[in-house]
Amino acid sequence: MSICPIEDRLALEDLTVAYAHALDSMGDVADICACFTEDAVYDLSGIGMAKVTGHSGISDLFTGIFATMSHQAHYLSNFAVTAYAGDTASVRTYVAGTGRAKDGNQVTVNGRYYFDAVRTAEGWKFARYHMDFLLPVPGALAEMHPGD
Q1: C-alpha span between 101 and 123 (Å, rounded)
Q2: In the prediction, which pLDDT does 147 show?
Q3: CATH class in words for 6-144
Q4: In angstroms, how far is CA 7 from the centroid of its own chain?
Q5: What pLDDT, on the 0 to 100 scale, is given for residue 49?
Q6: Residue 7: what are its φ and ψ, rounded to 5°?
Q7: Three-class SS state of 66
Q8: How far from the centroid of its chain's Cα atoms is residue 63's Cα?
Q9: CA–CA distance, 16 with 147 (Å, rounded to integer)
Q10: Where do the domains of the chain lie?
């Protein structure tokens, strides 16, 4: 692994923050998709939710999520570039997230995001994403997103 130049590190961190901001805006799913390659793998199977592929899968997933949610917030910390090879990189960041569904269910998660990123003509994009939990999550997550 080579050392990640500061310009790339900052661009990767900005992309990670843009993703969290798009999640919390709960608006246009295109803002979420803009953080990912067209063929990205978005894998939430490790936390009991969906694994989808591509912008259409990500868009469908978040259209459903946003329809059920009234509020959400994601706070990122401990950002690290864990691998770097010029035009590819891996990123890990901790996340504390909370959400409230329209039916009143609430959930708080404490976990880590893992991204594999590639340099594209438009800049860095995520090609693969998954997450894990650092603390157990109550059943409310499944209640808020059944069938995802």
Answers
A1: 34
A2: 54
A3: alpha beta
A4: 22
A5: 84
A6: -65, -40
A7: helix
A8: 15
A9: 26
A10: 6-144
**Gyration radius of the chain over CA positions:** 15
Closest CA to 30 of 7, 64, 56: 56
pTM over 0.70: yes
Strand order in the sheet with 106-120: 51-53, 36-43, 123-133, 106-120, 88-101, 69-84
Q: Token digits for 35?
A: 């953080």
Sequence-distant contacts of 137-143: CB under 8 A, at least 24 apart: 137/47, 137/107, 137/108, 137/109, 138/107, 140/105, 140/106, 140/107, 141/47, 141/48, 141/49, 141/107, 141/109, 142/48, 143/101, 143/105
Instruction: Name the nearest CA neighbour of 139 among 91, 99, 107, 93.
Output: 107
Q: pLDDT in tens for each of the 148 residues of the chain?
A: 689 999 999 999 999 999 999 999 998 899 999 999 999 999 998 888 889 999 999 999 999 999 999 999 999 999 999 999 999 999 999 999 999 999 999 989 999 999 999 999 999 999 999 999 998 876 555 555 555 5
